[in-house]
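Lay summary. Proteins are chains of building blocks that fold into shapes, and those shapes determine what they do. In this project we predict the shape from the chain. Here is one chain we studied, written as its sequence of building blocks.
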Amino acid sequence: MMDFTKHNEEAWNKRVDTGCRWTLPASREEIARARSGEWNILLTPQKPVPREWFPPLENARILCLASGGGQQAPILAAAGARVTVYDISRKQLDQDALVAQREHLSLEICQGDMRDLGCFADGSFDLIVHPCANHCVDDVAAVWRESYRVLRKGCSLLAGFTNPILYMIDDDLAAREGVLQIRHAIPYSDLEHVQQRVLLDRLREKEVLEFGHSLEQLVGGQLAAGFVVTGFYEDSWGTGELIDRYCSSFVATRALKP
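And here is the predicted shape, written in a compact code that computers can read:
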């Protein structure tokens, strides 16, 4: 088995270099609005997270998990929280450092795998913000277990993730002929489900390797870790994707540690 984690670290570094949407840091205007109390963040492509999902932010200890890119973490810090941002990609974290330096914000920046939060003690955080990212790892249950461990009791995990149906569809056929056809079973893995030549191309081009988790793993896994799901919404690409005509491509949950 290849080290897909190292590969994905390099792939996200490349996305920073090419200006992927999820690597573009918050603007000066967004930070100024956050300082005045006018802020929102995204877990999925379009819909802002409901404000009622958040605790009072002043001095709240927040972990932005697999959330590098200079987006969520600086906005929450500008709104008054004590924020730690944790990501596998050094260049993504550099985007957070750039905004922190530019805006004179205090951010704790840590590099690591979202499945292993061993650098944090039990009950370290009042909130975890985890935008769509767990499709980049094979074991989402580890993400939920570690998130549960490092949260304080009575605090929440806000998570975005991909609807498994996206990984069932034949992407090439959809792009080429505008046809949505089921091709893959769930759980899905780029390492196992694509043709060898396609996988080699993705490795050579440093494209992110992805994993499609089942709803049982994504939602049931939070419950199995001990969470109680107290909020839920769906979202779509909003960029003209064919699948948007038929269903939502993303899900966000608020999960409470009792």
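What the prediction tells us: The domain at 4-162+212-256 is CATH 3.40.50.150 (Rossmann fold).
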